[in-house]
């Protein structure tokens, strides 16, 4: 079976993608500098799957390390997940984001060019849409982009770089996947999200309140123009997302993909859930109350973000299967079994 390179494959989304690729029969090489992950995720994936992935510790900004990888392995396609993803840090340290996300991706694409590796899937984010008006929800891929923070800008830049390289590279085909809000964990509870330090996002924060590591959930704003006043997002189960990557690779390596094109595809459920919906679903999953209080709005938050995922269904034959209850149950199983993550 074809061999797939997953950069950032030891991370939250990457570890689930790697597992799903292995279980679909692909061989996988993981390249990750472990700056935001643990090799334990890859070890566990190896035990849970049909065949262990090859793990290479390295940095996407290191062209020589990438040359050695591509010389040692006949890679059919790259899924490029490696990068930095904390919105707040990208505002205070934009240079890190331009270095790792933009310069790192360019280094990777140059190595692919040197070694004749012509198929790439890029992990982009719905954050590239910026602050669209609530009337544009759910958003399809035609909604104009307009990222409002350095993180989002780097994601859009890399989309554009990959699109331009693909447009002229003989035999090149790529896909940009824009994820909405990935949450949950593999249903075994063996792998999941393991944020270093203070969790920025809603699910990991609630998970830590549920284990007693944090005292109380702050609900950022209950005066939004939504039915219960709290902001709405399109949460997507990480295993649905992982399956979407297998479909993307099947598509790129199959007969339908068109040379020199880089389609952009939203990966979301198409359904929104409010912060209060999420809080209630977590309490149901845990079977106990989770302390919460209303706090002021968080700067930069929009009222509603929701995907129109029709294109993913039509182009890739993919749609999300798991609901909010399953996202919370699986996330909780992982967190309860691993209260300190992989540490
Ligand atoms: P993560 O931090 O868990 O995974 C990223 C991985 O990349 C980590 O294992 C990290 O060690 C590795 N990495 C970072 N810099 C590297 C470098 N210079 N060289 C090699 N490896 C490096 O994050 P995640 O949530 O799994 O996100 C994966 C991708 O999906 C990222 O590109 C992110 O921007 C994108 N994305 C994430 C979300 C989300 O909410 N989690 C949403 C949309 C898009
Ligand atoms: C969801 C909702 C918060 C924490 C982020 C990135 C985005 C993408 C996905 C990478 C919001 C509320 C949160 C808390 C709360 N990542 N909240 N209390 O902001 O939609 O998207 O992750 O590409 O780029 O910005 O996700 O989980 O942080 O917040 O009330 O303690 O939960 O205000 O309404 P967000 P989130």
Please write the string of helix (H) and strand (E) elements.
EHEHEHEHHEHEEHEEEHEEHEHH
Distance between the termini: 34 Å
Largest sheet properties: 7 strands, parallel
Q: Portion of residues in helices?
A: 25-40%
Determine the CATH superfamily of the domain at 3-183 and 236-268 and 308-321: NAD(P)-binding Rossmann-like Domain
Q: In what order do the strands lie side by side in the largest sheet? A: 3-2-1-4-5-6-11
Please provide the count of β strands.
13
Overall spatial form: globular
Explain the overall architecture.
The protein has a seven-stranded parallel sheet, with helices on both faces. Strands 7-10 form a two-stranded parallel sheet. Strands 8-13 form a two-stranded parallel ribbon. It has helices at about 10-25, 40-50, 65-70, 85-90, 95-115, 150-170, 200-210, 240-255, 275-285, 310-315, 325-335, and strands at about 5, 25-30, 55, 75-80, 120-125, 175-180, 180-185, 215-220, 230-235, 235, 265, 275, 290-295. It contains eleven helices and 13 strands. Helices cover about 40% and strands about 15% of the residues. Strand 2 (about 25-30), helix 2 (about 40-50) and strand 3 (about 55) form a beta-alpha-beta unit. The protein has a domain at about 5-185 and about 235-270 and about 310-320: Rossmann fold (3-Layer(aba) Sandwich), CATH 3.40.50.720. The chain is globular, with a radius of gyration of 19 Å. It starts with a strand and ends in a 6-residue tail after the last helix. Nicotinamide-adenine-dinucleotide (NAD) binds near residues 7 and 125. UDP-4-deoxy-4-formamido-beta-L-arabinopyranose binds near residues 218 and 220.
